[in-house]
Amino acid sequence: MLNRILIAGALAAVPMLMPAAAHAQSSAQNSVLIIYGNDKCPTNSNGEEIVVCKRLDEAERFRIPSNLRDQGGPPQKTESWAVRSQDAVTAGNFGTGSCTSVGANGSTGCFVKRATAARAETRARRKAEQNLPLP
């Protein structure tokens, strides 16, 4: 009994889907193509499709798209493992030059750590400003 109801419902839904499919085939197709250098923008012979071409420089042909190139992210993901492992080397240090509250002048190491990180951020920002794509 349940199977007959399901089959009847499916058969009743088929005519409702057919006009939408026929309309989708008859509507004009629009597309945007990215072309490089002096490549020719293709034209459609049947006249029902609109083709818009966006021309980019030839140097961009085999590059990763600009919206995917520089996604940034946390700095620890862009640092090498050797740089990140330095924290493990200095984990038990205390006293002058360490970043700890134990021992005399432990805070001097914290200042050096922050100053080094700020200097690295400034260098990275300047480098990123120099690598901006030309309009």
Structure characterization notes:
The chain is mostly helical. Among the domains are: 31 residues, no CATH class; 43 residues. It contains six helices and two strands; from the N terminus they run αββααααα. The chain has a two-stranded parallel ribbon. The radius of gyration is 31 Å and the shape is elongated. The termini are far apart.
What's the helical proportion of residues? 40-55%
Q: Order of strands across the widest beta sheet?
A: 1-2
Q: What is the typical, i.e. mean, pLDDT?
A: 74
Q: Helix count, per DSSP?
A: 6
Q: Give helix and strand order, one letter per element, not per position.
A: HEEHHHHH
Number of strands: 2
Class based on secondary structure composition and strand pairing: mainly alpha
Terminus-to-terminus distance: 68 Å
Query: C-alpha Rg, in Å?
Result: 31 Å
General shape: elongated
SS strand fraction: 5-15%
The largest sheet, given as strand count, sense and whether it forms a barrel, is:
2 strands, parallel
- Poorly predicted parts: 20-24
